[in-house]
Specification:
Elements: E1 5-7, E2 12-13, E3 17-24, E4 30-37, E5 40-48, H1 51-54, E6 57-64, E7 67-68, E8 72-73, E9 85-91, E10 95-100, E11 105-109, E12 116-117, E13 119-122, E14 126-133
Length: about 130
């Protein structure tokens, strides 16, 4: 079983790409990945396996000043229980570009507008294998 993963003070700057690999825990309903700035979430990524009437989807959002933004539902669903996944996140001034392993993309606005984010975390539904910024 995977636990929470938290990385602090590892800067993702404009133009840099974060690559994450991991394995979703068997039977988990979902797992979440976060890029945060203080108490705000710049990117909240919820990989949903069988929540909400068996709909498998990746949902992105942000949480700023105590409020959630509008959800973004894009991309495919290349995630499988107990199988290694890989996704990349590239930070630009305008957006987080998430590239999933099936070649699909998620374009999520950089709503906080920062040029650097240093804190990343995930929840208990996934075991993170690697985490790299370049």
């Amino acid at each position: 079983m995977g636990g929470e993963m938290m990385v602090k003070n590892m800067p993702l700057k404009l133009g840099h790409t974060l690559t994450v690999t991991g394995i979703p825990n068997a039977g988990t309903n979902h797992f979440e990945f976060y890029i945060s700035s203080g108490d705000d979430l710049a990117l909240y990524m919820d990989v949903r396996f069988n929540r909400y009437q068996d709909m498998r989807q990746v949902v992105c959002n942000s949480h700023q000043a105590g409020r959630w933004g509008a959800e973004v539902h894009q991309g495919g669903f290349p995630f499988k229980y107990n199988e290694l996944f890989k996704f990349t996140i590239t930070l630009t001034c305008q957006e987080f570009l998430v590239l999933l392993s099936d070649g699909s993309e998620i374009h999520f606005p950089n709503r906080l507008g920062a040029t650097e984010y240093k804190d990343f975390s995930s929840d208990k539904g996934v075991l993170i294998h690697s985490f790299e910024i370049n």
